[in-house]
Amino acid sequence: MKNAGRKRRFPTGDLARVAVFAALIAVLGLPGSFNVFGNAVPITLQTLGVMLAGAILGTWRAALAVVVLLVLVAAGLPLLAGGRGGLGVFAGPSAGFLIGWIPGAALTGWLVERAGRNPGTAQLVLACLAGGVGVVYLFGIPVQAVVTGASLGTTAWFALAFVPGDLIKAVLAAVVVRGTQRAYPDAVPTVYRERLRAGRMH
């Protein structure tokens, strides 16, 4: 029985979803990136994918999707916006933001999991802001300051350029997730957790 329980932790369907969202985050990098106000870190759409992963997949699956993407990037695949890839990106100004995607996606998923079987749009927006913005900035800004040699205050000031776009992404992610969960109730992370627990009891 213990072995059966372990097998259910990584069912094929979950691995497929993880792969799909890793690919989604990569695809959102295709439009490219741009820098504003001289900021060394570019603005991209990929944080939208991080938010979507968290809100749809839940905690651990979302984090795993981001890990899969970053491992592929580290292996040299140009999956980041602007065709960036390789170990060098983890030594650059964006390194902290990239690493922050992992706990950011996880926190977004954790909050949505605890929002019940029918999370509202406002709850989804707040979850996306907390994880996809708050946590990502918490990791990204200090690392950028260290890498660039700028003060923490100056770096945080530059990061304000990201805020309007990230607010829009959070709202857009919430709307998309809300529509997805209405069409597919099983996509709600809380429902997934309940089904997983029920499966472990049998």
From TrEMBL:
Transmembrane segments: 12-30, 62-81, 87-112, 124-143, 155-177
Entry's Gene Ontology molecular function annotations: biotin transmembrane transporter activity
This protein's record includes keyword Cell membrane: yes
Cellular location(s): Cell membrane
Principal localisation: membrane
InterPro entries tied to this protein: BioY
Keyword Ribosomal protein: no
Record keywords, A-Z: Cell membrane, Membrane, Transmembrane, Transmembrane helix, Transport
Gene Ontology terms: cellular component: plasma membrane
Family: Belongs to the BioY family.
Name by which UniProt lists this protein: Biotin transporter
Organism: Nonomuraea polychroma
Taxonomic path: Bacteria, Bacillati, Actinomycetota, Actinomycetes, Streptosporangiales
